[in-house]
Structure formats: structure tokens, C-alpha cells
Amino acid sequence: MATNPVSPIDDDDQPAVANVVVDCQIRELYYGTFKAVRDTTIPVQKNSITAFIGPSGCGKSTVLRCINRMNDLVRGFRFEGQIRFRGRDIYEPAIDPVAVRRFIGMVFQQPNPFATSIFNNVAFGLRLNGYKGNKADKVEQALRGAALWEEVKDKLHKSGLSLSGGQQQRLCIARAIATEPEVLLMDEPCSALDPIATRKIEELMLELRKKYTIAIVTHNLQQAQRVADYTGFLYVDTTEGGRTGYLVEFGESKQLFNSPQHKHTQDYIRGEFS
Amino acid sequence: MATADLNKKPIVADPLAGVNFAQLEHSLRRPRTLMDFLLNALITLMTLSALIPLFSVVWMLALRGGRRLSVAVFTQLPPSALEAGGGFGNAIVGTLLMVGIAVLFTVPIGIMTAIYLAQNHHGKLAGVVRFAAKVLTGFPSILAGVFAYGAIVLATGGYSALAGAIALSILMLPTIVLTSEDAIRMVPSRMKEASIGLGATSTQTVWMVLLPTAIPGILTGVMLAVARAAGETAPLLFTALFSNYWLWVHGHAQLMRPTASLAVLIYNFAGMPFDNQVELAWAAALVLVLLVLAANLIGRSLSSQQNVQ
């Protein structure tokens, strides 16, 4: 059992010392009058990959986007609960969402590089913060970290949009890690990619886990089994007339997939519904 | 019973027999095909008709104006009645100057307004501004001249290039505001999300992501506005009037004196009973069209370097 709190998770799947970086506690979440999520508590452990799985419309992306305050952009968004990052609730009035997003980065479902060169894409975060040092070094470091350096090192000046889908997504990952955030949120990062590109990004995730904490939303159960250390299964509650997502079960992936406790989880994993 | 029915059906109904290829071939005898062909022919005909005025104007200009085009036209001053030769160099300078000043006024104000409108798209003030801009795109140009006359010429005591530039700005601003707002809003929202997700403030998102990506659209709007302004005559009649002299006197540009412009020169010379002046008017018209064309081409080449693929 590791005593170093920053130790990576080894293949014997003994988790590192329990060290919750983001403690997500949602009692009720609304978009206007629509109750989107209820009763969802997910602790995200340091240097691990936590997956959110569940059928469409169960609020997985909503919960993920709460963690870096991206839902602030949606009109009518409000929720009761707390999202604690390193012990501090990031929805306190005193907290600046812009600052939060520099510690908690995000990669989206659709690759979304900017319409500028590959170099400028990766250096974007550095420029935002007024980084005065050698940007080229940081850019190379980030591109290596995203397993993209070898493919683009000779064409850093080319437009980010000229890359293939899988490369664009790795560029977005490089862009996100260039500023070395603590947490990386990934919202279905592979669903727009072919299986080979997906595999590359999954391998990348396992590497990145050593340095970052990762939370991922995926509707690909095999992906969750392959990469996630912890998995949370969310389901839709239609009993009150609406469609409200809630957390059914959460635990270590091996345990959740091999012996799920709740019937909904069992049905979903066996493929009874999606 | 069933067998008898089968025998009466045409060959096509029987899947085992060969397909009748005559039915697959092109044929204008079928009503649908004929209609399709006629309508496509009509559309093509209409398109060609729409091109006729454009090309006949350009042809006419090239023919009548090209005859007089020479270096002298760019370097000499307008001739007086019964004088031979001459040019309209000062009118070219005047047009370029007034349109240039108008651009300096309208582009910063227009883009900033467009940023506000894009960011506060559903706001009340934004709604009012947008409505005002849409109404003003149809503003009669002569009224812009009259307004500038009252506001600038009377206030400053004389006709001037500045007043002319301000009149042109009134005509350019609505177009720039509206096209720039559209250009900014057409930046894919996923890029805006990416920027916010990286921890950019909304100002940083606008200046570092939205504006650079929207530049092609913004430039197109500016070129449209410039093309309109360069050809306007009515507003300049009350504001810049005309001048037969160069703008540069004693080493500096005289912005507060009556200024020549291509549009007003054409207006003045076209109606004169002297062949020399009429020929110069044609040449001036050609130069004006070429200037607008050049502006468009420059704008397009600048913006093509930033195409969103």
C-alpha cells in the first residue's frame, strides 16, 4: 500500500491513499423549472480516473460541467449542494469561476481547436495567464504529454483545423494540459472518433492519470471498464413526471462491473437498455 | 384466378423477367422530366439576364472611359470650360481621403458595437441598437448629407473633407455593425466554449478567439460599406462640395476646405456640354469602379488567409 500521497496507481489496483480532490455533492439541480439532477454525490480521487456512465439524458454531462462551472453559461441554471475543490466550495460567491477553470480543465465531445496554428492553440492557455517564459518549451511538453508531438513537430504553424479528428482531440488535450491544471474533465472525448483514435486517447488517459486527476463521461461501457478506476452509474427518474438524473451506484470499477448491487445497474451493464 | 391476373400484368411487375430499360432512360416525353428541364433552362436564362446589366455597364465603362485613361488623369487638375486636357487627380485623392477618414471612424466604433450586440444578443439596449442599425441601412444618403451640413458645415463655418467623411460614416456604420455582429456570432460556439473552458474571461474570449476568427466576415462588411461610400454623391454635395485644386497645400492636407471627389466630379462633368469634360467623366467612372474592385480584392485576399476550414 502506497504511503506517498502522490504515488501512481499500480496495476494491482490498490488505490492511492484516499485523497479526494473534487467532492461533488448535488442535492437538486435545475435548468429554470426543469429538475435535471438530484441526489448525486461523487468523490473524485486524486490521480485516478472516475467515469460517469448511464443512459442518455441522465445528467452525466451536467454533473461533469458543474465541476468547472461551465453550467454558469446556461441561462436558468441553479443548484443546491456543493462542489468542493480541495475542500473549498467553488460555488461560493467569493470564488471567481474564471480562476476555477484554470485549475480544472475540460476536453469536449467535439474536438474544438481554435482557427489558428497548432502552436497558438496549445500556447493559448499560457497567453491567457500572461506567461512570460519560453512558450515553445511548454508547448512541446504539452504536445508530448498528449502523444501528438511526433506527428506535428514539423508543422506547428499549420492550422489546428487541418488535423484529423483524433489528432484534433489530442490537440485539445494538449491545450488543456499546457497550463498543468489539477483536474481534467473529459466529456465523451472519444465519441466523435474512430476506434483506433479512441484507443490512442484511452492509452493517453492512463498515462495522464499519473500527473492529473481525470473525470470522464462516457456512454461506452467497455471504455469505462478499460480506463476507469472508479465508476458512477447515473439513471433517469421519471416518477415525478419529468426526467431527473440521479446517482444509482458508485464504487471501484471492477466491483461495479463484476457485481453491481442495484437492478438498474445490472440491467444497464448487461445491455437491457441504453 | 391468381395465375390469370399475373398473365395480364405488364412485364415490369414480374421480377423474373428482364427489366424494361426504355423506362430507365432519359426521356423528355415524361411530364416531370420536361418540367424539370424547362425550369432549369428558365433559371439559367434569368441568371444570364441578371448578368447583362452588370457586364454591359462594365463594358461601356471600359470602352468609353478607357479611351481617356492616362497618367495625366492622375496627375492633373480638372480643366475649366473649353480647356483641353486635364485630369482629376485631386478627385481621386479626395475620395480616398474621405473614405479613409470614414473608415477610421466607423470601423472601431462599428466593431465595438458589434461585440456588444453579439454578447448581449437578447438585451433590451441591444435590441434597440440593432433595430436602429437596420433602419439606418436604408437611410437616404441625401439626408446623411443634410445632417452633416447642419451638424458640421454650419458649426465649423464651411464645407470640408471632414464633413464629407462624417456624412459617409453615417452611411457606412449600420452596415459594418450588422455584418460584424453576424460574423462574430457565426464563430462556432464550440470555440467559445473551449476558450471559456480554458479559463478565459469573456473579454479575452472576444479579443483572442472571436474577433480573430470573425475577421473575414468583418472585412467583407467593411468592404461593402466602403464600396457604397465611395460612390455616394448626394451627401458630398452638401458637405465637401467640390474643389478644382489639390488638397495638399503648404505641406499639409487641408481637411477643413471644400474637397473634390470622384462622385461629385462625375456628377458635375457628365452634364456639361463640353466633350472634354464628358470624356473625363467616363474615365472617372471607370477609375471609381476599379477602385471599388481593388478594395474588394484586397479585402478578400486579406481575409482568405484566415479561412475557417
Would you spell out the secondary-structure blueprint of this structure?
The complex is a heterodimer of chains A (274) and B (309).
Chain A: E1 20-31, E2 34-45, E3 49-53, H1 60-67, E4 77-85, E5 88-89, H2 97-103, E6 104-107, H3 118-128, H4 135-145, H5 149-152, H6 165-177, E7 183-187, H7 195-208, E8 213-217, H8 221-227, E9 230-237, E10 244-252, H9 253-258, H10 263-270
Parallel strand pairs in A: 2-10, 3-8, 3-9, 6-7, 7-8
Antiparallel strand pairs in A: 1-2, 1-4, 4-5, 9-10
Chain B: H1 2-8, H2 31-66, H3 71-75, H4 89-119, H5 124-136, H6 141-156, H7 161-185, H8 189-197, H9 202-230, H10 234-239, E1 248-249, E2 252-253, H11 262-270, H12 275-304
Antiparallel strand pairs in B: 1-2
Helix pairs in contact in B: 2-12, 4-7, 4-9, 4-11, 5-7, 6-7, 7-9, 8-9, 9-12, 11-12
List the defining traits of the structure above:
heterodimer; A: 274 residues; alpha/beta; Rossmann fold; 10-stranded mixed beta sheet; B: 309 residues; mainly alpha; MetI-like fold; 2 domains; 1% strand; flat
Query: From the alpha-carbon coordinates, what is the Rg of chain B to the nearest angstrom?
Result: 29 Å
Secondary-structure element order of chain B, N to C = HHHHHHHHHHEEHH
CATH superfamily of the domain at 20-115 and 183-270 in chain A: P-loop containing nucleotide triphosphate hydrolases
Number of continuous helical runs of chain A: 10
Query: How many separate helices of chain B?
Result: 12
The CATH architecture of the largest domain in chain B would be Orthogonal Bundle
For the record, give the distance between the C-alpha atoms at the N and C termini of chain A, rounded to a whole number.
37 Å
Mean pLDDT of chain A: 89
Binned strand content of chain A: 25-35%
Q: Could you state the CATH homologous superfamily of the largest domain in chain B?
A: MetI-like
DSSP strand tally of chain B: 2
Structural Rg of chain A? 19 Å
CATH class category of the domain at 20-115 and 183-270 in chain A: Alpha Beta
- How would the global form of chain B be characterised? flat
